[in-house]
Amino acid sequence: MAWGFADMDDITFLEPFERLLKDLSSPRQVRAIEAGEDGHALWSGIAESGFLDALMPEASGGAGLALRDVGLLVEALGRYLTPFPVAETMVARALLAQEGMAMPDGAILLAAMSGDVARNVPLALVARHALIDTGSAIVLQEIDRDALPRPSVHGGLAADIRLADPILTLPRPLQGLRAMQAVLDAAKMAGVAARLLEMTVAYANERVQFGKPIGKQQAIQQQLAIMAEKTVMMRMAARIGTGCAEWPSLAAAATAKSVTSAAAVDVAAIAHAVHGAIGISEEHDLQLYTRRLQEWRVANGSEGYWQRQLGDIRLAHDASSSAAFARAIPPTA
Amino acid sequence: MFDKFTLRALPDEDEAMRGPLRALIAARIANLPADRRARSWLGFDRDLSLALGRAGYLGLTLPRRYGGQEKSAYARFVVAEELLSVGAPVAAHWIADRQSAQLILHFGTEAQREAYLPGICRGEIYFCIGMSEPGSGSDLASVRTRAERSGDGWRLNGQKIWTTFAQHDDYMIALVRTSGGAADRQQGLSQFIIDLKAPGVTVRPIVDLTGDAHFAEVFFEDVALPAEALIGQEGAGWAQVTAELAFERSGPERIFSSIVLLDTWIAHVREVRAKDVAATALIGRLCAELATLRAMSLAVTAQLVEGESPVIEASLVKDLGTGFEQSIPALIADDLGSHPDETVSPELARTLAFVTQIAPSYSLRGGTREILRGIIARGLGLR
């Protein structure tokens, strides 16, 4: 443990984690990794920090933290666009450690599939292994990067993952990997949105048209107010997901992912609208952020998928009112 | 700047209020059809307010010496949630309990507190808010109703409009001009407690687009106000009204206005097409939004408990909340309209019709959407 963070509260270890990301996961470094560099400095920095073992039991040498302790770290991973599945590797290592399995090196993806392929898995091109939920078990398999198809989006690192020979098999957590991955995506999207809001407000205060900053125009102010509302809503929904002690409930995951996915579309749209043409250029960092929102919105179930899941739960939840149902969704301390 | 939006939990002692409160409410609303319950804080029921007062559910945050319960804003959150989530007709006491009592407690004299607060806590005396005038809506500082000094007291002339339930209430707390003119804007405004039975006060109910008469216009013609009708400082009306609006915007009210319709429609879907994918997704969408907005509203309440004034945060939750409330009738109308050959109960049809018609008011009352977004933009550093 580099910082011995088992004894700290979440805010205390957030700061060194953010500092690490600020140093090693800047937009320039992110672009380099997207262009094919191996990102060794970033990955080894994170690995050496000990954060990858945050969720592992203390008996296995981890920090023994719960999901709710690392929610802010996951938001930070989004905010800094970190192009490795860091949160996913934390979860995977905890699952492997629980079963006393040997720990593979490198980044580990999470993926869920009902057939033999998981489509468009974010960060597939930088992961060494994938932990796959087949619906009946969890299997660990190696990722052969050279065999993966090229990403369909410019600058992207996502690819389809096909079921291959498993290295080992684990028991499946009750709610499955998709619920956990959805919550991680939600938290990362909330982190991206918060950063986009800062960037967009700053730009509106700088960019001058009609003789004054465009942020002085009521039309722009109203748009940015909506963006702030959606950003806060994403943050709150994400925390309903990451507030769980252990594995997120299906209802909490559905709430987190459906609300963040739906709002991500609006946040990205307003960010682009306010930035104007400069935001369409590759050179401007805006596209790094909005591209992730679009990707994570649909990854592991878009809002439509998770709305159906939650609707099924509500319809099965017989007698009580929607208010009582909604009240029971967030995890209790 | 939005760091205060974190997951909060209600204290156990406040959660424990739900059981007995729910029983009291259930007994009172058992015979109310959904379309009556959908009126909720536009439903005036003196007996319910008296029963709530007797049982100690009003004046929750007020000191005991005025008849209050000395509980936190969390207790009020629980009681508001229980009442509104089933559409209890709370209009009689709602404004008095939510904002007039707070205003009197914070800005009133000891004599004013003793005169009004115990009756509010018992659910016996009812207040309305005199802000809007024919020429003053969002531009509240332009009010023209005027109180002029007359002997020891004041003489009031002018008109208020869109005043909710002035025809049933005992008192109005009005924002009026006491010095200067329209050009002085926020300067020279004061607040008065006006006895609506006083000579010279005329209240005319206004029929709304649903056929109800939930609001009224109120005329003041040489109304003699005693000196003690002034509340707070002369000339400090604007600051007091701003504080009052923060109370109005902070509660969980702004999430539940369409909840009776939502539950009535969910019961319909469960009965006639529980496997319908589009309806199931819509139910999930609305429940996810509800859970998130409720968590946000609770975070704002936590700020109140901690003694902060969450003006920007409350504006943000209110704008999102009213948008959510307004989306419900539109989405449900499309769902039902997408199945034109399906039988819909008259109760659901009437509930949908009422909520559809009244929903535009959700983002007007207590500050329009555009005003709220202006407040948020200021919070973002844009103005």
TrEMBL record, chain B:
<feature type="domain" description="Acyl-CoA dehydrogenase/oxidase N-terminal">
    <location>
        <begin position="12"/>
        <end position="124"/>
    </location>
</feature>
<dbReference type="InterPro" id="IPR006091">
    <property type="entry name" value="Acyl-CoA_Oxase/DH_mid-dom"/>
</dbReference>
<keyword id="KW-0285">Flavoprotein</keyword>
<dbReference type="InterPro" id="IPR009100">
    <property type="entry name" value="AcylCoA_DH/oxidase_NM_dom_sf"/>
</dbReference>
<dbReference type="Pfam" id="PF02770">
    <property type="entry name" value="Acyl-CoA_dh_M"/>
</dbReference>
<keyword id="KW-0560">Oxidoreductase</keyword>
<dbReference type="InterPro" id="IPR013786">
    <property type="entry name" value="AcylCoA_DH/ox_N"/>
</dbReference>
<dbReference type="InterPro" id="IPR006089">
    <property type="entry name" value="Acyl-CoA_DH_CS"/>
</dbReference>
<dbReference type="InterPro" id="IPR037069">
    <property type="entry name" value="AcylCoA_DH/ox_N_sf"/>
</dbReference>
<dbReference type="InterPro" id="IPR046373">
    <property type="entry name" value="Acyl-CoA_Oxase/DH_mid-dom_sf"/>
</dbReference>
<protein>
    <submittedName>
        <fullName>Acyl-CoA dehydrogenase family protein</fullName>
    </submittedName>
</protein>
<feature type="domain" description="Acyl-CoA oxidase/dehydrogenase middle">
    <location>
        <begin position="128"/>
        <end position="223"/>
    </location>
</feature>
<dbReference type="InterPro" id="IPR036250">
    <property type="entry name" value="AcylCo_DH-like_C"/>
</dbReference>
<dbReference type="InterPro" id="IPR052161">
    <property type="entry name" value="Mycobact_Acyl-CoA_DH"/>
</dbReference>
<dbReference type="GO" id="GO:0005886">
    <property type="term" value="C:plasma membrane"/>
</dbReference>
<dbReference type="Pfam" id="PF02771">
    <property type="entry name" value="Acyl-CoA_dh_N"/>
</dbReference>
<dbReference type="GO" id="GO:0050660">
    <property type="term" value="F:flavin adenine dinucleotide binding"/>
</dbReference>
<keyword id="KW-0274">FAD</keyword>
<dbReference type="GO" id="GO:0003995">
    <property type="term" value="F:acyl-CoA dehydrogenase activity"/>
</dbReference>
